[in-house]
Amino acid sequence: MQNCSIVVGNAAFTEPCLGTYKYLNVSYECILPPSAPTTNLVTCESETARLSCDQGNINVLSANYGRTNSSTCSTGKPANQLSNVQCRQSTSLSVLTTLCNGQQSCSIVVGNVAFTEPCPGTYKYLNVSYECITPPPPSAPSTNLFTCESQTAPLSCAQGTINVLSANYGRTDQTTCSTGKPANQLSNVQCTQSTSLSVLTTQCDEKPDCSISVNNAVFGDPCVGTYKYLNVSYTCVPTIIICQDKGSTITCEGNRKLNIHFANYGRRDAVTCPHSRASAMSSTCTSSQTRNLQLRCNGKRRCVLNASNSQFHDQCPHIHKYLEVSYSCD
């Protein structure tokens, strides 16, 4: 946020030391958002303009087919074909956005056929500026998992990271995990443990997989004498990868806003973002950027990301790194 106010008291922070008059000591910095990584492409008339993204999809920002100076695309051309520097085709942007937006690569022959003639007798060129945008992740279906007391609950994501939605350790019906149990251990169906969600989010959120023992030692005993189970609902949040020294923009459609779940700048495997020098992929290193990107991106419709040492602390100077980000549009 650009500014923030909070009332310093037990209501906001809870009571850490009863009877003591307390104060809040906070250290903060102001982070300037990086400039968007844009590509500016100039293509002379009768040639082919090729727009492409290494990562993400094309989003055209501006375009003009015409001439706004006498030097661009001027080699070998007579002066009378270069003198009109007020030549603009107002439909240039709509032509490019219709053809190229949302594509990973796009080609167009620069000429009157594609754009129509804005100034007869002038030798023209196409000047287009575009960025590469990572499309919003699809809404992830939720998984509902029941695990009986004394067993282990396995949460896992084939792709992305875990985001726990709800959890309860206790009993809310007589049938779940009831096989072989006496009636007196199944009769209490109002058994809930309020701290179940915080236990799961602390241990499992932002991880690709997680195992948790379902027992009183982990969750506490909410109802002595009742045979309990864990009911947890979670989604797998998609993860995007941006290789070192590359950039992209994450966006949300409509009124939906970004919510960063996990971010790391480093290397967690020897496969992602390959490098010609094997030693640059030989080690793993992690540098959590979750809080950094939450402050920078949460609540916005779009956020520019640059995977570079100038943006994030370099924990491993000799390793070719990548930015790993899990996010949703809420």
Task: Describe the secondary structure blueprint for this structure.
Blueprint: H1 10-13, E1 38-44, E2 48-52, E3 57-66, H2 92-100, E4 105-109, H3 112-115, E5 125-134, E6 142-148, E7 152-156, E8 161-170, H4 196-204, E9 209-213, H5 216-219, E10 229-237, E11 239-243, E12 247-251, E13 258-266, H6 290-297, E14 302-306, E15 322-329
Parallel strand pairs: 5-12
Antiparallel strand pairs: 1-5, 2-4, 3-5, 6-10, 7-9, 8-10, 11-15, 12-14, 13-15
* Helix/strand structural class: mainly beta
Q: What's the domain count?
A: 3
**H/I helix tally:** 6
Strand proportion: 25-35%
Distance between the termini: 17 Å
Largest sheet: 5 strands, mixed
Describe the structure.
By secondary structure, the protein is mainly beta. It folds into three domains: 97 residues, Jelly Rolls (Sandwich), CATH 2.60.120; 95 residues, Sandwich (Jelly Rolls), CATH 2.60.120.740; 91 residues, Jelly Rolls, CATH 2.60.120. The protein is 12% helix and 32% strand. The protein has six helices and 15 strands. The strands form five sheets. Strands 1, 3, 5, 12 and 14 form a five-stranded mixed β-sheet that branches. The chain is elongated. The model has no long low-confidence stretch (mean pLDDT 91).
